[in-house]
Amino acid sequence: MYAVSFADKPVIRSSRLGFVLSADSTFYKGFVLRGIETRSFDSSWKPVWGEVAVIRDHYRELTVHLQKSSGAAGSAAGLRLDLVFRVFEDGVGFRYVFPKQPGLNYFIVGDELTEFRLAGDHKTFWIPGDYDTNEYPYTTSALSAVDNRALVASSTAIAVRVAPDAQAVQTPLMMKTADSLYLNIHEAALVGYPAMQLHVDGRALSLTAALVPDAVGNKAYLHAPFATPWRTVIVSDKAADILTSKLILNLNEPSKVANTDWIRPMKFVGVWWEMQTGKGTWNYSDFADSVGVDGRPVPNGRHSANTANVKRYIDFAAANQIGGVLVEGWNVGWEDWFGNWKENVFDFVTPYPDFDVRELTDYAASKGVSLIMHNETSGSATNYERQMDTAFRYMQRWGYTSVKTGYVGKIIPRGEHHDGQWMVEHYVRVAEKAASYHVMLDAHEPVRPTGLQRTYPNWLACEAARGNEYNAFSDGNAPEHETILPFTRLIGGPMDYTPGIFKLRGYSSVPGRQVHTTLCKQLALYVTLYSPLQMAADLPENYAAHRDAFQFIRDVPVDWEDTKILAAEPGDYLTIARKQKGAENWFIGGITDESPRDLRVSLGFLKKGRTYAAIVYRDGAGADWKTNPEAYTIERLTVDSKSVLSVKLAPGGGVAVSLMGIAAN
Ligand code: NOJ
Ligand code: CA
């Protein structure tokens, strides 16, 4: 058993630890204590990229050596298990270590029994514990009210939903207690093991680890020695501390990529929103299995990834200091890519006839822009594993330095899940393979991140949550959505949310579709939703209509020296200021949910004695996400560390501010 308290208040009551193993179905009792070790650690490290330039890793560690007593049944007698606890100022991490030992060499985990018994019926921000997706909208409820059935049933815009336990939720799980403690439960360093979801017992107010099973119902196949991922509990009486916690990163291994000079955070655009909104298509033809009289596929005339159109995006990127252009739908296979559980869909090296890779590579290079590769696997991980070296050699041949992968659909190996052990190992293999070819990675539909970006800094971002794209193909994301994400999904790592939509209504042929934010809130997301990879997701023509507001997207960086959380409450509002790495410039993003708010931002974090040229992008008079989302006002001011900004946020609104240091003379 273990327990966690914060300032003498119980946070986790005495809770069970242990396993059901193939080698011992009671690997949770009958242990004797063989010894303990303690140590302290305090050191700092520099991430290759991040929200801050330097991270302090400071903890006390306790290792507990356990052994099954000699009276234990059968062959279990004498088996050993170690528990390692690390206590930080902002929380706790613990993991199980199976030492190398006779009698426990290769073994199967039937269940992990880790419990988190809570001290109350906390306010909880949750999505269903689904084996295949994290793309649900959040529900805020009392813990005891968790029941995911209605949400799972109604979420038909999500391609694959497998949520057999009505009381299961995903992590990072964010909670707030009645006396205003903020708790976040997640895991760190998920490698070689399935994702941990949590089963809620609403009566006992306890959470139990629910590992995502494999095709035959087992949880994990292990070979000792093996250390499980860390189970993490971040605790504070300030919401801001949850956001600044570096506990998850600190519990991950240092970079395995020795030379990281080639890894560069960047902004990108792409022929993407065209397809998401139905203006264009990924597929070249509308027929999967027939050709024209000339024996060739019949073009549908709406294929976005054509050479001329991609050049238009390259020109736009070059003109606006945007580093990358993502091209989806460039390779053969999109006619029947999805929904057939088909194993060999794409080969990742054969372009459609209207996509001239040589011409585009040369053109992009001449403009100083990188093309971003797209490898949609449609869930067929086996096919991708077979093609991966070929795919990365193709990227190398044509100068692609980053790839966006995707896993839409049911997984192959058939019966496996996106969040099971097999796929967890697959995502890491892809990150390692990408690193060996000096390619940066953005994975869509993977398991949610657990801080592995420290170990694989080329793994810039993941989706693994409900992105802006849901505003294109479903009823969309509620105005509170982006105030919850930083406290939940982003605790594990950066998200490729694809912000920056300027045309917030009338972009879809489906009536009623609209983005549930104002234009200024889309700008603020570049600061509040941290990622080293940020898309400017809208179409060039929609940016051309608001060149003055687009200036913020041109200016905002994607790598930071420092971060200050100025105001935060999950589900309600969030204001963050970040300092550009290597420059005396700051950027502020402030967002609200559906409620309007008055924001006062004191600029005390600016360098004393320095003046800054500020541009404030704020919701205009009468702005409202629903009725008037595109109203904004831009104001230019000179400010210093004594200045205070007062801003009104519209319902679903936001504010973005750039503060460029004026050289002292
Ligand atoms: C879903 C991804 O989230 C989206 O970004 C992508 O365009 C489609 N899959 C097609 O790969
Ligand atoms: Ca997705």
* Approximate strand percentage: 25-35%
- Ligand types: 1-deoxynojirimycin, calcium ion
- Global mean pLDDT: 97
> What distance separates the N and C termini?
62 Å
Describe this structure in words.
The chain has 665 residues and is of the alpha+beta class. It contains 13 helices and 34 strands. The strands form six sheets. Strands 4, 5, 6, 7, 10, 11, 13, 14, 18 and 19 form a ten-stranded antiparallel beta sheet that branches. The longest helix is centred in the middle third of the chain and has 17 residues, at 381-397. The radius of gyration is 25 Å and the shape is globular. The termini are far apart. It binds 1-deoxynojirimycin and calcium ion. Calcium ion binds next to loops.
SSE inventory with pairings:
Elements (H helix, E strand, L loop, with lengths): L1 E5 L2 E7 L3 E3 L9 E15 L9 E14 L11 E9 L2 E8 L7 E7 L2 E4 L4 E4 L12 E4 L6 H6 L13 E2 L3 E4 L5 E7 L7 E6 L4 E6 L8 E4 L2 E2 L2 E7 L2 H6 L2 H4 L15 E5 L2 H4 L30 H13 L4 E3 L30 H10 L3 E7 L4 H17 L4 E5 L14 H16 L3 E5 L14 E4 L7 H4 L7 H4 L34 H10 L4 E3 L4 H5 L2 H9 L4 E10 L3 E8 L4 E8 L4 E6 L9 E8 L12 E8 L4 E6 L4 E8 L4
Parallel strand pairs: 20-21, 20-26, 21-22, 22-23, 23-24, 24-25
Antiparallel strand pairs: 1-2, 2-9, 3-8, 4-5, 5-6, 6-7, 7-18, 7-19, 8-17, 9-16, 10-11, 10-13, 12-15, 13-14, 14-19, 15-16, 27-28, 28-29, 29-34, 30-33, 31-32, 31-34
Helix pairs in contact: 5-6, 7-8
Bound molecules: 1-deoxynojirimycin and calcium ion.
Key words describing this protein structure:
665 residues; alpha+beta; ten-stranded antiparallel beta sheet; seven-stranded parallel beta sheet; 13 helices; 16% helix; binds 1-deoxynojirimycin; binds calcium ion
